Amino acid sequence: MGSAADWNSIREKVIARVDSSAEDLNKISQEIWSNPELKFEEHHAHKILTDYLVKEGFKVEGNFILDTGFRATYGSDGGVNVCVICEYDALPDIGHACGHNLIAECGIGAGIAIKAGLEILGEQAGKVTLLGTPAEEGGCGKKMMIDGKAFEGVDVAMMAHGCSFYVPRPKYLALQQIEIKFIGKPAHAAAFPWEGRNALDAAVMCYQAISVLRQQMKPDWRVHGIFTNGGVKPNIIPEEAELFYYMRAPTKVELDVLIQKVLGCIDGAAKATSCEANYKLGLNDLDVVTNKGLISIYEKHAQNMGVTFETNPSIRDAAVGSTDMGNVSYVVPSIHPMFDINTVAPNHSREFTADAGAPTAQEPTLTQAKALALTGLELLMPGNKQLLEDIRKEFDETFGKSK
After folding, report:
1. Rounded to two decimals, what is the model's pTM?
2. How many Å apart are CA 27 and CA 354, to the nearest integer?
C-alpha cells in the first residue's frame, strides 16, 4: 500500500463522499422502491441511475447488452478494473421484498466513492466500472451479461445484499429450473377411461416420486415445484400435464447429481403411466464462490466501521437461496456479502418490502457502500500489486487457469 498518510487521506475522502451524497442516494433508492419494476422491465430505474451517473462524471453506456442494463466507467485502462454491481428489479405483487433498491443505492454509492479516490490517485491507477444488471429475480440477467462479454477486462466484482443479518461469506446454492410436460391420450373419463392415458397421473406420480426422493437427498439439497397444468375438464382424461421445478445444491457438481435423480423420477412416472415425457432445462444460477482474499479485505474495512459479523453457525452457514451473482463468481473473483438493514423480517416478505424503504435501512446501506469502496480502492493503491496477484492466484487454483 502507499504511505499511511496517503491511505488515510483517501479513506477520509471516500467516507466524506458517501456521506455528502446520502440525500441523493436515498432519493434514488426511494424512487426505485416506490416504482417497482419486474425483471427486464426496469426502465424507470435504468433512467434514474444512468442520469445520475452522467451527472457525476461517469462515461455511461445505457441499454448495455440488455435493454435495461448499463455500464458506467471512470478511469483508464491498463490498471486495476474494479467492478461494482447494481441490481434493481422487483418481485411480482410484493415489490422490493429483496431490497434491490438498496443494492442499487449501495452500488452507486460505492462507485462514486471509488471515483473520488481515483481523483486523488490519478486515472492511471485504474478504473471503476459500475454494472447495472437486470433481472436477478428469475431472469439470470448476469448470465446474459457474461455471454455479452460485460466482464471482460474486469479484475474483481463486488456487490452487497440486504437481509436481516451480517454474513460476509453467504452460502448461495446452485439452481437449475426445469419445466416438465407429460403427454397422454384423451378419452371420456366416464364412458371410455380405458381408452385414455392419463398425463395428470404421470405428473402426480412424478411429484410423489420427487417427494419420496427427499429421504435420500443431502440436507442442503432442495427440490421444490408446482403444477402448472392439470388438464381441462374432469370428464376428459388429461392429455397434457405440466410441472415447474427448481433444483438446488451447494455446488454445480452436486447439482448435476441431483438433476439426474430428478430425471429418473420423470422417466419412471412416464413409463408407469404409458405417457410420453418431455422436459426443458431453464435458467441456471451457479453457486457463489466467495474469493477469500477479496472478502478478507472487505471484512477488515467493514469491521473498522463498526460492523459485527454473525457468529451463530445456524445463521452464518445456512443456505440463503440462489443468485446469478454465482455465475459472475465463476468468471471473475467476486464477493457478495449480506448486511442487516435493521429488520427481523425474512427476504421475499411484505414486511421486508416495508423495511427496505424505511429510513432505518439507510445507515447500514451507506456503510456497505463505504466498505466496498475501500475494498476496491485498496486494490487500486500503488504498491498493492501483490494483493491482486494473490486474489487471481486463488481464483485460478479454484477454477483452473483455463477459466
Report:
1. 0.92
2. 16
